[in-house]
Amino acid sequence: MSEHAVSRFGHVELDDMPDDLRERIGAIAEKSGFVPNVFRALARRPAELRAFLDYHDALVEKAPDDRGGLSKAERELVVVATSGANHCTYCVVAHGAILRVRMKDPEIADKVASNPWGAQLSPRERAIVDLALLIATDSAQLTDAELDDARMAGLSEDEIWDVGAITALFAMSNRLAHLTALRPNPEFFLMGRLPR
Amino acid sequence: MSEHAVSRFGHVELDDMPDDLRERIGAIAEKSGFVPNVFRALARRPAELRAFLDYHDALVEKAPDDRGGLSKAERELVVVATSGANHCTYCVVAHGAILRVRMKDPEIADKVASNPWGAQLSPRERAIVDLALLIATDSAQLTDAELDDARMAGLSEDEIWDVGAITALFAMSNRLAHLTALRPNPEFFLMGRLPR
Amino acid sequence: MSEHAVSRFGHVELDDMPDDLRERIGAIAEKSGFVPNVFRALARRPAELRAFLDYHDALVEKAPDDRGGLSKAERELVVVATSGANHCTYCVVAHGAILRVRMKDPEIADKVASNPWGAQLSPRERAIVDLALLIATDSAQLTDAELDDARMAGLSEDEIWDVGAITALFAMSNRLAHLTALRPNPEFFLMGRLPR
Amino acid sequence: MSEHAVSRFGHVELDDMPDDLRERIGAIAEKSGFVPNVFRALARRPAELRAFLDYHDALVEKAPDDRGGLSKAERELVVVATSGANHCTYCVVAHGAILRVRMKDPEIADKVASNPWGAQLSPRERAIVDLALLIATDSAQLTDAELDDARMAGLSEDEIWDVGAITALFAMSNRLAHLTALRPNPEFFLMGRLPR
Amino acid sequence: MSEHAVSRFGHVELDDMPDDLRERIGAIAEKSGFVPNVFRALARRPAELRAFLDYHDALVEKAPDDRGGLSKAERELVVVATSGANHCTYCVVAHGAILRVRMKDPEIADKVASNPWGAQLSPRERAIVDLALLIATDSAQLTDAELDDARMAGLSEDEIWDVGAITALFAMSNRLAHLTALRPNPEFFLMGRLPR
Amino acid sequence: MSEHAVSRFGHVELDDMPDDLRERIGAIAEKSGFVPNVFRALARRPAELRAFLDYHDALVEKAPDDRGGLSKAERELVVVATSGANHCTYCVVAHGAILRVRMKDPEIADKVASNPWGAQLSPRERAIVDLALLIATDSAQLTDAELDDARMAGLSEDEIWDVGAITALFAMSNRLAHLTALRPNPEFFLMGRLPR
Q1: In this complex, is the C-beta atom of A137 within 8 Å of any C-beta atom belonging to chain E?
Q2: Which residues of D touch B115 (CB under 8 A)?
C-alpha cells in the first residue's frame, strides 16, 4: 500500500469546500492550528460530513448539563478506549491527543489505547470503559445485567446513553477511517505530551 | 429482562417532539402508516436524532446519480447483511422489510440476515456484501487488496465509498438499537411478504 | 454461486424414495402441505435420512411426559436460537415457522434468530436459551457451574439433557444444511405470520 | 467438578438395556473387549441411542463402495481432526485409538488431535481435513469455492458428502460428550500404541 | 507439507554442538535415553538455545522451596494445559509424557491437552489451570479480580508468578515449535502410559 | 486496581540486585538514563531475569551479520507490531520509543501499534509484520504456504527464524508484563518524538 497524503480517496482542501463547511471547519482549524484530516477526507461528500459534524458536536463536544452527563474528558476516554479496541490509528492518535490535553496526563492515551481492558482507572472510569468496550465489540450481548453494573458504579441513565452513543458514533468513525486509510495529521502525535 | 413498549430508555411520541422533528418524522409515518420505533426512541435526544436522520438520508435514501452509485435495493442489502452479522434485531426486521419491498422478493431478507456470508447472490451483490461484512466485523484488516477485489467486480470508487459508509452508519445504528433494546414495530414483520 | 432448486447435491423426489421413506415423509408432507426440502436433499443417502428422522422424532417431536421435559414450543426455541447463532438459513426459516405456530407469536422467531443472546424471554426460556447457546458455540467450556445455573432456573436433569441433545442434533443439522446449501421451501417464510 | 465413573448423568449397564440395544452393543463390546462408555451414557435414552448407532453405522462404519468414498481410516481422520478442534476428550481418545489401529501409525492421532491445522498429511488427507475443519468450526462460511478446492484435490461428490456428514455427526457427538462430561474408557488410551 | 526428520529448519546433532551445549544436552539425553528434538532444532542458534535452557531450568525444573511454589507435577500441568490450548503438538506430546510420569497417571495428559477448560481436576489444580489459560489466550484481560480468584484458591504470590511465568515461557516455546514444525521424538508417545 | 509504582509484584532497585545483574542492568541504565521497569520487576527472580536478558540480547540486540538477518529497526518493528496485537502497554510504549529512535520516524510506532494489520509499510516490512502477526495470534495455523509468502518477499531462512523467534520471545514478554501489570517508565513516552 502506498502512503497517501490524507486518505485513500483523496481529499478536499478547506478553500474548495462549500461555504458552510469552509466556515465551520475553518473555525476548528483556527483553534487547532491545522485542518484535521478527517474533515478533508470526508468533504468528498458534503452532506455526509455535515451530518458527521452535527453528530460529533451533539455527543462529544457537549459539556455536562443540569442532568449531569459525562465530562468532556470522560467522553474522550470512551473514544480512545473503543478506537483502541477497534485498532483505528486515526482516532487513537487524534483523540488520544485531545484526551491528553483534557486529562492533563501525557501517559493516559497510550495506556488506554494499547490496553483498554487492563488500563488502571478510577472505578467510575473503569465502569465507563467496560460498558463502552462491550458495546464496541459485542453489543448483541448487552443485557440489563451490564447496565445494572454501570448503574451500581454510579452512572445515570443519561450517562449510560452517552457512553453507548459515543461508542456507537466511533464504531462508525473508526470504520470510515479504515475505509479511507485516513492518515493522522503530524501535529496530533505530540499534542499534550510536553509540559506547558 | 422485561419487555419494553419501544425501548429500554422510554420514548417520545410524535406529538411531543420538537416541531421540525414532528414534521420530518410525521412525513415518514404518513408514508409508512406508522412511526418507526427508532425515531420514537432516539427523540429523547433531538440533536442526535437530527444528525441521525441527516446521515441516513445522505446515505440510504440517496438514489444513484450521474456518477453511478448503489441502487436503493443494494443499499438495503448492505444494511441487512451487516445488521445480520451484528445480530441487530431491529435493523434486520425493519430494513429486512424495506429490502423485501425494494427487491420485490419475499425471501431475500431472511436469507441475507441469517447467513450473509453464504446467501446466494449475483456476483456484483456478493462483492458488495463481502466488502460490507469485512468492514462490519474487522475493518482494521481492510487493505488495498480487498478494495481491488471490489473494483474487479465492477464497483466504482463512489460505490465502494457507499458500501463502506453505509456499513459504518449501521455499525452505529446497530449499537444504538442494542443500547436501547429497541423493539421493532409489529408492522415491519409482515411487510413485503405477501404478493401485492 | 448459482441458485439451486433444493440443494447443492441435487435431491430425490418423494416418488423416487424407498418405500419406507416415501411413506414416512409422505405423512409429513400431507400434514405440512409440501415436502420439506431437507428430506428431499438428505434422501440421497437413505440410511442417513432414516437415522436423521429417528433422532429428530426422539428429540424434537417428543411431548413432555411424566418425567416432565421441555414443551414442544421450548424445543423449537432451542432449535431457532442455536440455528440463529450458527447462521443456518434453512433451520432458521423452517423451524422459525414452527416456532411461530407453536408459540402463537408471529414475532418470536425473527427476534430469537437474529439475536438469541438478547431476545426478551421469560426467565425459564432465557435459562434454556443460554445453556443451548453455550453448547452450540463453545461446548468444551461447559462445566458444572453452568448446569447449576440451569438447575437454579428450575430445569430438571431431563430438561437439561433435552436442551443439550437438541442443541447437539442441530449442530449436526445446521452443518448438513450448510454442506448442501439447502434452500428453504417458499411455504415456510410466511407460516405462522398471519392471524388465523 | 468431581470425577464421574462414566458420565455426569449416570449410566446404564449392558444388562439393564432393552434387548435390541443389549444385543447390538454387546456385539461391539465383544469385539472391543469392553463397553465403550458413550453407549452406557446414551442408553439413558434408548430411542436416541438407537438413532445415534444407526447414524454412526451409516457414516463411519461404511466401507468404500462402487461409487468410491472415504476409506475407513480417512473417516476416522475426519473424526479425530474435528474432535480435536472441538476439544472433545472422549472422541479424541476413543477415535484416536481407532485411527491408530486403522492407519497402523501410533503417532497419527496425537498429531492430528493436538493440531489438525498443521499436522503433516498427504495432499488428499490435507484436503479432507481442511474441509472438515471449516465445516466443524464455521460452516456458514462454506461456499462453492471451498468445495472446488476439495474437488481439485480429487475428492468426488460422494466423498465431499462423507467429509461433511461425518463432521456434522461429530459436531453432535462432541456436544453430547461435553453435555454428559463423558469419560473415556481406560482401555482406549493405550490401544494402537504398541507394536503388535 | 513434507515430513521433516526433526524440524523445518534442519537440526544439529549432539556431536556438532558447541562443547557447553553438548555437555548440557548430553546429560539430558543420558537421563531420557534420547536427545529431545527441541534441542536439536534450536541448536541452530546456540546463544538462543542457552537462554532457552536457562529459562526452562529456572521455571520448570525448579522444585518447591522454602517459600512454597508449584510442585514439579503442577508445573507440567501448566505446560500441558496451555500447550493444548495453543495446539502445539510437540509440547503436548513431550510434556504430556513428563506429566504422566510425574503424576503417575496414564490418562491425565490426554485429558488436559484435549480439553484444558473442562478436564476434571482438584480445586487447586483447576485454579492453576484457569489462571494459566487466561494468560495463554487473552492476557490483556488479566485483572486483579482473576488474581484474587487464584489467591482465594490458596495460591501464594510466588505460585501465581510461577503459573504466569511458565505459561509465558510456553507461549514462546509453542510458537518456536510451530515456527520450526518441530516433530516429537517417537519415544515420547508411549512414555508413562504403561504400568512400571 | 490501584496504580503500582512499577509492578503488581513490587520491584527490586538496582542497588539491591545481585552483582552481575546490577552491573549488566546498570550499563543499560547508564545508556538510557534510567532503569527500565521491566528489569526492576523481573529482578524478583534473578535466574529468570538472567535468562530473559540473554534471550533478548541474542535476538533483539543482534546486528545483521554475514548471513544477513533483520536490521535492528526491523527487529523492533516485529516487537511493536506483535505487542500491539497483544495489547501490551509496557512493550508498546518502551519498544515504540526504541522503534522511533531506530527508524528516525516519530509516527511509526503509534501507527504500527494501533493497527499492525493496516499500517502502511514497505513490501519487505509488510511481509515481516504479516508473518509476525500470524505467529503471534494463531501460530498453529502456520504452514509452508505462509513461509513461502515470506520467501517470495525476499526473506532468507535466517530472517524468517528471526521474525518467528522475536515474535515468540515477545509472546512471553507481553504475558510477563500483563502478569505483573508492568508500568512503563515515564521517560519512554516522549523518546524519539522530538527532532534532535
Answers
A1: no
A2: 140
User: In this model, does residue A177 exceed pLDDT 60?
Assistant: yes
With touching defined as 3 or more inter-chain CB pairs under 8 Å, the answer for chains A and D is no
The DSSP string of C104-122 is: T-SSHHHHHHH-TTT----
3-class secondary-structure state, position D115: coil
Pick the residue from chain F with its C-alpha nearest to D111: F140
CB proximity F50 to E under 8 Å = yes
- For residue B24, the SS3 value is helix
pLDDT in tens, E36-50: 999 999 999 999 999
What is the distance between the terminal CA atoms of chain F, rounded to a whole angstrom? 38
Interchain contact F33–B (C-beta under 8 A) = no
Classify residue A2 as left (phi > 0), alpha (psi -120 to 50) or beta. Answer: beta
- The whole-angstrom separation of Cα A23 and Cα A138 is 38
State how far Cα D68 lies from the chain centre: 20
Does residue F17 have a pLDDT over 70?
Answer: yes
Q: pLDDT tens digits, residue range A26-73?
A: 999 999 999 999 999 999 999 999 999 999 999 988 767 666 789 999
CA gap A151, A171 in Å, rounded: 23
CB-based contacts of B157, cutoff 8 Å, min separation 6: A9
Using the beta-carbon criterion (under 8 Å), do E175 and F167 form an inter-chain contact?
A: yes
Kindly list the residues from chain B whose CB atom is less than 8 angstroms away from the CB atom of residue D142.
118
What are the beta bridge partners of residue F65?
F68
- pLDDT tens-place string over residues A8-18: 999 999 999 99
Q: A114 to chain F, minimum CA–CA distance in Å?
A: 5
Cell of D112: 492430528
DSSP per-residue letters across E133-195: HHHHHHGGG--HHHHHHHHHTT--HHHHHHHHHHHHHHHHHHHHHHHHTPPPPGGGGTTT-S-
Q: Which residue has the cell 535492528?
A: F72
Indicate the residue of D117, D120, D189 with minimum beta-carbon distance to E107.
Answer: D189
* Arithmetic mean of pLDDT over chain A: 95
C-alpha neighbours within 13 Å on the C-beta side of residue D35: 20
What CA–CA distance (Å, rounded) separates F51 from E53?
Answer: 8
Check CB contact of D186 with chain E, cutoff 8 Å.
yes
pLDDT, position F176: 98
* Cβ-Cβ contacts under 8 Å for C61 (sequence gap 6 or more): C72
The answer to whether residue E169 neighbours chain F at the CB level (below 8 Å) is yes
| Residue B112: band (very low, low, confident or very high) from pLDDT cuts 50, 70, 90 | very high
- DSSP assignment, residue C189? G
User: CB contact, 8 Å: B122 with chain A?
Assistant: no
Which pLDDT does position A66 carry in this prediction?
61
| pTM of the complete model | 0.96
pLDDT level of residue E66 (50, 70, 90 thresholds):
low
What is the pLDDT, as a whole number, of residue D5? 85
Question: Which chain F positions have a beta carbon within 8 Å of D115's beta carbon?
Answer: 140
Check CB contact of D137 with chain F, cutoff 8 Å: no
Chains D and C are in contact, defined as 3 or more C-beta pairs closer than 8 angstroms: yes
Q: Which amino acid is at A162?
A: D
ipTM of predicted complex: 0.96
Please tell me if residue B99 touches chain C, with a CB cutoff of 8 Å: no
**Looking at chain A, which residue has its C-alpha nearest residue C117?**
A141
> Which regions in chain C score pLDDT beneath 50?
1-2
In degrees and rounded to multiples of 5, residue E129 shows phi and psi of -70, -40
d(CA D13, CA B41): 60
Interchain contact, C93 vs B84, CB within 8 Å: no
* Alpha-carbon span A81 to A71, nearest angstrom: 15
Looking at chain F, which subunits does it touch, using at least 3 CB pairs closer than 8 Å as the criterion? A, B, D, E
Which chain F residues are closer than 8 Å to A189 by Cβ?
106-107, 110, 193
